[in-house]
Fold this sequence. Notes:
single chain; 292 residues; alpha/beta; seven-stranded parallel sheet; two-stranded parallel sheet; 11 strands; 36% helix
Amino acid sequence: MRVFVAGATGAIGRYLVPALVAAGHEVTGSTRTESGLALLRAQGADGVRLDVFDAGAVKRAVAAAAPDAIIHQLTALSGGSPADNGRIRRIGTRNLVDAALQAAVPRIVAQSIAWAYEPGDGPATESTPLDEGAPEPRATTIAGITALERAVAGLDRHVILRYGLFYGPGTWYRPDGPAADVLRGRTDDPASVFLSGLVANDAVSSFVHVQDAALATVAALDWPAGPVNVVDDEPAPAREWLPVLAAAAGVPAPALASGRLGWQRGAGNALARSRGWAPLHPTWRTGFGAGG
């Protein structure tokens, strides 16, 4: 296929673009920087500098690429805030979907999250409703996600990938990344605003190695429409996974605590596995310390 990747040079894009090229796809990736263009060329893809808030520019870029599919990996996590991320999910997604409709692009695969589900016991499945009644500050995140998912559903052939927390190279949860810095007491990285709740308590999270997320994204080009959780095999409370991350980072394990919020329940991956996806890193227990 001809594939347009919006947000092609982030943590997942650095795995995704080479994986798409290796699978025989012709890739055009969008980026905000000249260095991003150079990276895309080195990976065997075409690149375009793009402001996703410029609706006209997005339409021109998509029309020029004439893709068979769009992969939406737009975020504002690097130096941004929850409000910035919500804005790109609302406005950036709307512009991308409008461009797809104008250019008659038949399919879209979009990045969502696996921790947007309503409160409950046990890991959420794709049929679990999103947490649309959440109070602030969570409401900002949920509003962005619901706007994104509703917008991409405007294309009949849409797959919404609800990724777990990314770990691996270029992510917050790598051994030398922002999460480890927070454990060291350093909060100068802008990402620390997203990591303020880093406590070794009963809050359950689901993770996915960024390489596994990329491989699922390539496979999703052929999946049926709808949401799919892309997470590893072991949802776990922070009192279990946070000490393992601390050990991989070489920092003291945090004190254990109790309690969780109702939505901190993790998610299951049975649907993705039923479609043939199998993570190379099935658990964070071994993945946190692995290279990649």
